[in-house]
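If your schedule permits, I should be very grateful for your opinion on a structural question. Kindly check, if you would, that the fold set down in the tokens agrees with what the sequence suggests. Thank you for your consideration; the sequence and its tokens are set out here:
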Amino acid sequence: MFQNTRQPDWDWWEALWPEPKAVLKTVGIESGQSVADVGSGNGYFTLPLAELVDGEPVYAIDINDELLGELAEAAAERQCQNINCIHGDARNLPELLPEPVDTVLVANTFHGVEKQVEFARQAHELLRPDGQFVVVNWHDMPKSETTVANEPRGPPESLRMAVEETRDVLRKVFGSVEQRDVPPYHYAVIGTRS
């Protein structure tokens, strides 16, 4: 498990990002792409991903079997048949995914990855040509300034990564790296496999 990652309440995710599909489009995920949602939890992004990619496989990877169970139930209720729940430790990503994908998404957990360059290399291995490794992270701001529903939210300040710090990690693996803003308190850094 990554350091200091846990599943927040769904209510405050909705308060932060009321339209998760719009966030996914902002970071470059489109119809027709297969996606690995690493650290998916109970599926706040996984469920809209399944709709967005129009039937392509979405692999929800998490170490918490209970959260994956919640996701599987929600997917069945919404008739999202393209979601594949994978229980396992994301630090062994190549052993978990059955095939290469177009996008590896890591939202709100990269700050807790112990060996970030190694993890980025694993993601690179699993991408199809021109595939993207998308890291969505909290800005390096005081926690008192990142409030959701009038409460300070996000990881401890000691774990928050500046945009440039995240870019530096991805530059060690990917030839092309870009950044996008994900309001109100996040950014995305995207590495593209050439």
